[in-house]
Design brief:
This protein is an alpha/beta fold and 547 residues long. The protein contains 20 helices and 22 strands. The strands form seven sheets. Strands 16-17-15-14-20-21-22 form a seven-stranded mixed β-sheet, sandwiched between helices. Strands 3-2-1-5-13 form a five-stranded mixed β-sheet. A two-stranded antiparallel sheet has the order 4-7. Helix 13 packs across helix 14 and helix 16 packs across helix 19.
């Protein structure tokens, strides 16, 4: 009897797989594969230099990783291939690529290997900000009804700004592309030989609405004449809901992966969204924060309402039958890594080496001895641009209050606190707009291993935070969607039965809550000043771009 599914979680730097036991909920095996080319943010593999704010990837890394992790979990577990009932895929989004009619990425063709717009544009590719601004302006001018449901502002991270950038900078790539699609949908296409678009990806990242579809041709024509028929030509494929079967595994891919041909492959899902059912969340009012290099905040609701600064709300976007909101921060773990790589003195490096611990651990130990506000610092969590509630990739990170007496651990703690303040602002935005947040949970690598930052989050938010039960919640959730596609039950039912939270709960400390309340007000005042019309950060970025 078949009793296992495989969940694939494509992240920023690696792909992970989990083999899930559908009877016990046990993660029978897991495997990770790091992309050989990583993130292309300075040059292409051929040596072509990239401008500021580009973030590309090589699609063959995804396929190489696919084979490695699927075969890896089978070998580790010893589970016969005949017992694997299906495959699910999640992918960090919005990550898009142009392909020919057979699904070959254009960057693999000789005529486009030196053309940046022919490669995969990763979610944090932010050089399409001017395109996002123009889309936003046209949508406002036309009174597009979908705009308020995307927080009232278009993000450069989404699909259409990235497509418009290709049209303007590399029209030959746009003309040559038979399709432009989410990388998650491309993987599903490779697995099944059939192209289907995920309602999750299309809904959150491409303005697709249940019942009405994509925006009208007139809107696209108003953006650029070449875009008038973008839906009919480049996006032309069926859109299907999460938890449904996109197709079955082809003979060729089955042989490559070591699986049986004909098993169901689920519709792709955005990576953060897959963590929700994995955490046993399937009811309204529950918010999950997925914390890693960036953060996403997912909230289930029975109501659809536009909330300013929230990235989007999609019917059936995570749990069929419910609306699901998405908000987020573009820089969380990335900001901590930036400081460790660029701001730690040699004495700290030597201390960590002598003690046999990482710099992160050393800084956390030192930072844990500080009281909230003791350093006199407040930072803004915009080191990779700002997502919710500002939707502006031209904003940048800030640390206020530095003196010649400031120590590295004080800066490190200020960066931790800045991400907690950003999350608090998102929660406040939901609550103040009539979308209650009754339960707060956290998933991802950070909550599993960093008690200091989780206590800071609980203190800043003034709420209990429960940690997810799986260290690979994205892949675990994808395996749940695979089970739904294979007919083992509904997504909600499987989430209730298989998903889980850990017993780790962080509770706010009253005195810390009081101290952070004052500091949070300073964070809000500073962010309001720098994001709402001062123009300082935009001018600085323009100066950097012109040099």
């Amino acid at each position: 009897m078949k009793r296992y599914t495989i969940g694939l979680d494509y992240g920023t730097l690696s792909v992970r797989a989990v083999l899930l036991d559908l009877q016990t909920g046990e993660e029978k095996a897991e495997c990770v594969f790091e992309y050989p080319h990583g993130v292309l943010d300075s040059e292409l593999p051929c040596g072509v230099r990239l401008p500021q704010d580009w973030a590309l990837q090589v699609p063959q890394d995804y396929l190489q990783g696919l084979t490695a992790v699927v075969r890896g979990v089978l070998e580790q577990s010893g589970v016969p291939k005949e017992e694997v009932a299906g495959i699910g895929v999640d992918f960090t989004a919005c990550t898009i690529l142009p392909t020919d009619a057979e699904g070959t990425p254009l960057c693999e063709k000789a005529e486009f290997e030196r053309t940046p717009n022919a490669y995969c544009k990763l979610w944090k590719h932010h050089s399409a900000q001017s395109c996002a601004d123009r889309i936003d302006a046209v949508a406002r001018q036309r009174g597009e009804p979908w705009l308020p449901l995307y927080g009232g502002k278009v993000s450069s991270e989404w699909m259409l700004p990235k497509i418009l950038q290709t049209v303007e900078e590399s029209p030959e790539v746009y003309r040559a592309a038979a399709f432009i699609l989410e990388a998650g949908d491309w993987i599903v296409w490779k697995l099944t030989g059939v192209q289907k678009r995920s309602g999750c990806g299309a809904g959150y990242k491409a303005f697709y609405r249940d019942g009405t579809g994509y925006p009208e041709r007139e809107f696209f024509r108003a953006l650029h004449p070449m875009l008038e028929d973008v839906v009919q030509t480049k996006l032309n494929a069926p859109v299907i809901p999460v938890g449904s079967c996109a197709g079955t595994l082809t003979d060729e891919m089955a042989e490559q992966l070591g699986l049986c041909a004909g098993i169901p492959v689920a519709a792709a899902v955005v990576d953060a969204h897959a963590s929700v059912p994995a955490s046993g969340i399937y009811e309204p009012g529950s918010m999950l924060i997925i914390m890693g290099t960036s953060s996403c905040h997912m909230l289930l609701s029975e109501e659809e309402r536009g909330i300013p600064g929230v990235c989007g709300i999609v019917k059936d976007g995570i749990i069929p039958g419910l609306f699901a909101y998405e908000a987020g921060q573009t820089c969380v773990g990335d900001s901590f890594s930036w400081f460790v790589h660029n701001g730690v003195p040699a004495a700290y490096e030597e201390e960590a080496k002598q003690r046999g611990i990482s710099i992160h651990r050393l800084l956390r130990e030192k930072a844990s001895n500080l009281l909230p506000g003791e350093s006199g610092l407040v930072a803004l969590d915009w080191f990779n641009g700002a997502r919710s509630p500002w939707m502006d990739s031209a904003l940048s990170g800030t640390i206020v209050g530095l003196t010649i007496a400031t120590r590295p651990e004080e800066i490190y703690r200020a960066l931790l606190e800045s991400t907690a303040f950003g999350t608090r602002r998102i929660i406040d935005q939901f609550v103040n707009s009539g979308a209650p947040v009754q339960k707060l949970c956290a998933a991802g690598g950070i909550p599993m291993k960093d008690p200091l930052i989780m206590q800071i989050y609980a203190d800043v938010c003034g709420r209990e935070i429960t940690v997810a039960g799986s260290g690979q919640s994205g892949a675990f959730g994808s395996a749940i969607y695979a089970a739904a596609a294979a007919g083992f039950g509904s997504v909600a039912g499987l989430a209730a039965r298989l998903g889980r939270l850990s017993g780790t709960v962080y509770r706010p400390i009253p005195e810390n809550v009081r101290r952070y309340e004052a500091l949070y007000k300073e964070y809000c005042a500073l962010s309001d000043f720098l994001a709402r019309g001062s123009g300082i950060m935009h001018r600085l970025r323009e100066g950097k771009s012109s040099t």
